């Protein structure tokens, strides 16, 4: 058990490990943390740990410990921190934290609750959750996690991976790596690598839908590698479907969904969405379920029958109403366009691997069967493939031949009005390492205040590219009109340098030669030369690691 993987999901988390003797990965069952659902009854669900965390006071903690018995560890009782299934069983409203994954990369410092007078941030919650997992692994197996691969969405910002890396180090994990979730799924399905084939992985998670076309071949398998050909992502996931389904059921009872910020409404909403998730999972397996329309805590009125029958047709019409399948089609069209760009097409895809609980919905399977043909669609391990592939990657059985998935731009200030433009330096799809002058351009300091410029500053923006409603860098102008889905990569600690002598406002000639490249470790590096003096101000200086 030297190589581990943690598939941290928006809804569920799966832990796997690699057995060197058997050359196979295994899903680890942690009985104190894993959930039991209707899906278990048909043997489709492995040891899924709800990605949930609860903070309770000492008095309440002791009563909870008595109620849950062996499912509540003594250490958790003392600290008042409960994770996994036990956290969901508490139904504590504001005391239960879910959806940490979707917020960790964008708002790690955002407070989510107050506990014993201290604000608990998203980062605190994530670290508490992962620390509890690592501790429970040690308690259950006697092994410490020292080497671990974390599976991550393909459209996650670099800061998300950095947050995970820092948390992993803080809880004692020393050898840390990352692998895109779709790529891990391809490895986890254990396809016959004696055959060269192109595979499309569709990963339907709680927070996003991620697609990756991966080429597997005997040559690459001997090197322990796979080649990523195309990627696309849609910012809609299983949690959205839970909400859509709950709202649709309420509307069928002539109840309009509304939610204020009171704790009473928060608990009601949480339970309502949890019921939506349960019904979705049961419909996935049996084709039918009954939705328990919980009375609103303020008026207790369900406006009709409390129980609503939900079948595959009801759920399918809900998905259509929200354009779910249209979004999938747009993402798949994006995959096809990327394949065409490299001289192939969708027809070259030999197998389609479906990952995640949402792929079990009959409408989803039918949709992929219609587009690719049922003979190419596979779904035999939708819950375990990503974690299993992560363990293989952690053991260095495979290494991904990957490319950069976001655009990166340099912020530049114009002389007219001091406005900021953004110049592309690394484009989405760039394979690494690049040559030393992958991007090179000469710049003239703008001197916006009309005084000699002494300091130059390099600020890099990371720009996400989604399949839906998001543009990339403009091919004609070479500029990018920044949309909300972007982030300053080094805004807190920009690259600074001094100009000696200072650049004069009246001097229109270029002063700096600035180049960027990506090294084999995904570090973005820059070299800056002062054209006036010939001095190299920065040489292969690290800007940020594009994790």
In short:
It is built from 14 helices and 29 strands.
Structure description:
The protein is of the alpha+beta class and 547 residues long. It folds into three domains: 203 residues, Nucleotidyltransferase, domain 5; 84 residues, Actin, Chain A, domain 4; 139 residues, Sandwich (Substrate Binding Domain Of DNAk, Chain A, domain 1). Helices cover 30% and strands 30% of the residues. The chain is built from 14 helices and 29 strands. Strands 1, 2, 3, 4, 10 and 11 form a six-stranded mixed sheet that branches. A hairpin with a 2-residue loop joins strand 8 and strand 9. The longest helix has 24 residues. The radius of gyration is 25 Å and the shape is globular. About 8% of the residues have low confidence.
Tag the structure with descriptive keywords.
547 residues; Nucleotidyltransferase, domain 5; Actin, Chain A, domain 4; Substrate Binding Domain Of DNAk, Chain A, domain 1; 29 strands; globular
Low-confidence stretches: 39-43, 58-78, 465-484
Q: Can you identify the CATH superfamily of the largest domain?
A: ATPase, nucleotide binding domain
The CATH architecture of the largest domain can be given as 2-Layer Sandwich
Q: Compute the gyration radius: what is it?
A: 25 Å
Structure summary, number of beta strands? 29
Given helix and strand content, the structural type is alpha+beta
Q: Summarize the biggest pleated sheet.
A: 6 strands, mixed
C-alpha end-to-end distance: 25 Å
CATH topology of the largest domain: Nucleotidyltransferase, domain 5
Number of helices: 14
**Percent strand:** 25-35%
CATH classification, class level of the largest domain: Alpha Beta
Q: Can you tell me the number of structural domains?
A: 3
